[in-house]
Amino acid sequence: MYREYIHKVEHLLREITGEDDVLLTDGGDHADIASTVAFALAKKERKNPAAIAADIVAKIAAHPDSQGLTVSAVGPYINFVFSGEYVADSVRAARHPDYGQLPARTERVILEHTSANPNGPLHVGHIRNTVIGDTLVRVFRKAGYPVDAQYYLNDMGRQIAIVAWGVKHLHYDRLPNEKGDEFIVRHYVEANKIAREQPEIEPEFDEMMEKIEAGDPETVRLFHDSVDICAEGIKETLAAMNVHHDRFVRETTFLWNGDMQKVLARVEALPEAQHDGQMMYLDLSDKGFGNRYVLRRSNGTSVYAARDLAFHLWKNSQCDRSIDVLGADHKLIGAQLQTTLSMIGERPPEIVHFEFVSLPEGSMTTRGGVFITADELLAETKKRALEEVSVRRPELGEAERERIASAVAVGAVRYDIVKVSAEKSTVFDWKEALDFERQSAPYIQYAHARACSILERAKADGGFTENYSFSDPYEIALAKHIAQFPYVIEKVVVELRPHLLATYVRDLADLFNSFYRFAPVLKAEGGVRDARLTLVDASRNTLAAALDVLGIEALESM
């Protein structure tokens, strides 16, 4: 309902003022929405903005389409308050099983995320990409878009050459129950150590890269087998975090199908293309870049950037909107990619850049073998969650406590990462992430469980009759916040800022808990009890829908 009322307000203001941008803003404590359009008109008309606001209010009040709106002028500000009918309709809509699902769209979206090198397990430094990317995939699907979630699999770069060299020369046996990524990283770390101690083996890595680009069957098989083993382990970790990719796209695809050669030919025709022997690069200095954008090495082999251009052209042929999730350390190469695609007349991808998440223990590097894996992070979080659940619910069986702890752990990790806007770095805080009493995933999951418990107790008492008359301020505040859920979904799609949804659901849990505390539900009587139970059901459904979009299980008991 909030989306519909916002559109109604925009339509009225545009019709009356003639302005395209009617400058809507949050109404704060005094209104559901407000407009500052009188300020813009005051500059044009050279009139007092308060007088303009009063005139607009009078025209809106007399307009036949203003039903359900109470409009007033507070100085130059135009405030809109939505009616009791809006509140009742919002609660009714929020009880629908598909609440928040927007109409189906035909615009196809490809969203690439995670895409970590398959040289070892995902670590804490990788999973902010994973959580942001998967949450965006889920939001776009909730907004009605057909989405293809993709992982770009590096199966030929230098890091993979080092892995392949290790697999070829070290002959390690796979340990019992050892995940594929754990097995591969042992080769990668040791091969790097050997290369530091014996730099004379470095040319062997280069030779292997030349062989795979030439399509040497033995080298291709070695690279692909090594990558597949590692990717198998990475997929297990992703699944444990409730993350699924629709497609893993191999980098070598665009080398061998000719796409890379085609795009390089187009780039080479640009006046900015430069050569230094066999090396080819773009001089993008007039575009604000101070270094070369290298696409071919001096030995004639291609670099990652060349395949990446081909990959993005292929994605453009498959979708209407292409989105990449990349770390802050990829800002330069991401901007060079976008610029180059624009120069050859192709659509550049939208890029969501994020700063990194770390642990208090410090930074991590796969190459040196100094890192905390995502698996270890989840295991430790589950261990701490199990301790908390066991204290809170000692009467539950071990299997049920384990199940709840697993859901709490995944929720704690995902929420603690996504709640911070992507452009800010963050440190994963164990205590804060698992705090059942403060604004964390367990806190939100507990609000949902509480709503389920209230409804179960009401059912045991004979249920309730649907009633939509609300008058208590805690009821109205909760209902109006519930109404904003579809609008928040739409806003995240437009702005590509998933933390807005995390903030929304945290505030929803806050408002539900305040309502529960100050507006008794089961102890109320008659129509008041029925109305509040109806609102509890709307809260339960909205919390569950929002948590699902965040990739977090909505527990019915904690």
Automatic annotation (TrEMBL):
InterPro entries: aa-tRNA-synth_I_CS, Arg-tRNA-ligase, Arg-tRNA-synth_N, Arg-tRNA-synth_N_sf, ArgRS_core, DALR_anticod-bd, Rossmann-like_a/b/a_fold, tRNAsynth_Ia_anticodon-bd. Its EC number is 6.1.1.19. It is an enzyme of class 6 (ligase). Signal peptide: none annotated. It comes from the Archaea. GO terms for molecular function: arginine-tRNA ligase activity. Residues 444-558 form the DALR anticodon binding domain. The keyword Aminoacyl-tRNA synthetase applies. Residues 7-82 form the Arginyl tRNA synthetase N-terminal domain. Keywords: Aminoacyl-tRNA synthetase, ATP-binding, Cytoplasm, Ligase, Nucleotide-binding, Protein biosynthesis. The keyword Transcription regulation does not apply. A motif ('HIGH' region) lies at residues 116-126. It catalyses: tRNA(Arg) + L-arginine + ATP = L-arginyl-tRNA(Arg) + AMP + diphosphate. Pfam families: Arg_tRNA_synt_N, DALR_1, tRNA-synt_1d. It is found in: Cytoplasm. HAMAP family: Arg_tRNA_synth. Belongs to the class-I aminoacyl-tRNA synthetase family. This is Arginine--tRNA ligase. It comes from Methanocorpusculum vombati. The lineage of its organism: Archaea, Methanobacteriati, Methanobacteriota, Stenosarchaea group, Methanomicrobia.
